[in-house]
Amino acid sequence: MSTEETKDKNKSAFSKILETHDEIKLPKVGDLIEGVIVSLGKNEVILDYKGIASGLIRGKEIQDESGVSSDFKEGDTAKATVLEMDNEKGFMELSFRYAGHQQAWENLEKLMKDEEIVKAKVMDANKGGLMVKIGNVLGFLPVSQLTTKYYPRVEGGDKGKILGHLKSFIGEEFNVAIIDVDEKESKLIVSQKAALAEDQKKTLLEYKVGRKIEGKITGVAGFGAFVEFGDNLEGLVHISEIAWQRIDNPNDVVKVGDKVKAEVISVEAGRISLSMKRLIKDPWAVIAEKYKVGDKVKGKVLKINPFGAFVELDRDIHGLAHISELSSHIINSPEDVVAVGEEYTFVIINLDTNKHRLGLSLKALKDKKAGKKEEVKEDVKEAKEVKKEASKEEPKAKEKTETKEEKEDKIVEDVSPEGDLKKEEKKEESSTEEKEEVKVEKKVSPKGDLQKNLKKEKVEDKK
Predict the structure, then answer these.
(1) Residues with Cβ < 8 Å from 251, sequence gap 6 or more?
(2) Higher pLDDT pick, 357 / 441
(3) Which end of the chain is more exposed for a tag (fewer CB within 10 A), N or C?
(4) Angstrom distance (rounded) from CA 263 to CA 53
(5) Where are the domains of the chain?
């Protein structure tokens, strides 16, 4: 009997069964069916479907993503996907591979819905995160979804070092929670953070905002320090919550292994935020006892920015000298006037204890000194002017006194008989003196000599 004849015979037999079993609904291509394994070979598996049809699984369709098919034995119940309703052998063509794929993704969706924590094996790494496998399905664990314990704390954010850190996890298994599943796009995203949060939900309920904890620094990054405490809990102390003074690098204050005390200031989505400075007395609360506006203070320049210089007045109090307060002249950079590490004398020009702000000025001190020098110069100048005026007034005073005395003498002369006599005598004396002066002038004047010479020449001519 030929293959075609066998196929037709099976079809007619199958049709007769369907006619006598109206309640039986045959599957369609793409449906997932369940049956019993009646034959299990290396390259073929025969599945009985409810006693009314047989299915054949062969070749690559035997292996599935879920990994279940590798453990099958004869008599086991198994699921398979219908590829064809009737193949050349008269069987339904089935696939464990498609069925396994469907099962695997359906299972992943259920795990996500139930918020179950699963094991994920790290297969590889790239700059964005880790490639992981759950069962036989590949997924992705982004760097942002790693817990603080595994997060790459690399100074300066060197991408090469980050990748090296991530590759060190290859081969490890992490507890993860599934946060996104899409079978059509073959997308599976998992989170280590979410798994930790889920696992620690009950424990986290014990840590309310305001609770004090003691822990150990497990990592230091540019943005803060990680502290491990309690039952394998880890929180972050942001750089702004480490100390009251300005900090540019957390490593300047804390080191890995340091034991510290902190206060819980936030618990959100499994993330715990801590503060170390809130357990220390705020030095700004009593700053008015040490500093006030107008005070001259010495401070060391800690850091220079384009807009000014940060100055340390003492261990806890730092202030800002804005670029406009460094010089009375226009400058291009604070470095034109001050240098990091150097100490200068400033004037406090504003103070806000609530906002922890203290403004300093270098030019105010210089202007003040210049003002004092100008005042001294003005005082000296004024003193000199006064002295000069006084010296001018003395001769005038004498002249005035003499004139007054002379006037008194004249008055006496005018009213006395002797005065009249004296006047006449003086008058005569003066007139005699005038005449004699005229004679003398004539004798000594060149004009007189000239006239004499002319007369002498005339007399000689007559002769």
Answers:
(1) 220
(2) 357
(3) C
(4) 69
(5) 3-104, 115-199, 212-279, 283-361, 418-463
pLDDT at 258: 93
- Asked if 136 contacts 150 with a C-beta cutoff of 8 angstroms, the reply is no
Outline where DSSP puts E strands in 168-327.
173-182, 187-191, 212-221, 224-229, 233-238, 259-268, 271-275, 296-305, 308-312, 318-322
- Say how far apart CA 245 and CA 241 lie, in whole Å: 10
Q: CA-CA distance, 79 to 68, in Å (whole number)?
A: 10
Instruction: Tell me how far apart the alpha carbons of residues 459 and 463 are, in angstroms, rounded to a whole number.
Output: 7
Residue 181 is predicted with a pLDDT of 92
Q: Do the Cβ atoms of 212 and 260 come closer than 8 Å? A: no
Pair 278, 237: CB distance under 8 Å: no
C-alpha dihedral over 156, 161, 163, 164, to 10 degrees?
-160
Residue 11 pLDDT class (50, 70, 90 cuts):
low
Q: What is the CATH number of domain 3-104?
A: 2.40.50.140
CA-wise closest residue to 238 among 278, 198, 285: 278
Which CATH code is given to the segment(s) 115-199? 2.40.50.140
* Strand, helix or coil for residue 41: coil
Angle at alpha carbon of residue 332, lines to 330 and 335, rounded to 5°: 110
Contact in structure between 34 and 78 (CB atoms under 8 Å): yes
CATH of region 283-361? 2.40.50.140
Chain segment 118-136, per-residue pLDDT in tens: 999 999 999 889 999 998 7
Nearest to 118, CA basis, from 186, 188, 205, 202: 188
Is residue 179 within 8 A of residue 191, CB to CB? The reply is: yes
Identify which of 273, 317, 280 has the alpha carbon closest to the alpha carbon of residue 295. 317
Who has greater pLDDT, 135 or 367?
135
User: Is the Cβ–Cβ distance between 52 and 24 less than 8 Å?
Assistant: yes
Q: What is the pLDDT of residues 315-333, one digit of tens each?
A: 888 899 999 999 988 899 9
Q: Tell me if domain 115-199 and domain 283-361 are identical in fold.
A: yes
In one-letter notation, the amino acid at residue 16 is K
Q: Which residue has the tokens 């020449």?
A: 457
Residue 392: what pLDDT?
61
- Would you say 233 and 273 are in contact if contact means Cβ atoms under 8 Å apart? no
Return the number of other C-beta atoms located less than 10 Å from residue 64's C-beta.
26
Q: Is the pLDDT of residue 371 over 60?
A: no
| Residue 155 binned pLDDT confidence (cut-offs 50, 70, 90) | low
Q: Which CATH number fits domain 212-279: 3.10.560.10, 2.40.37.20, 1.20.1640.10, 2.40.50.140?
A: 2.40.50.140
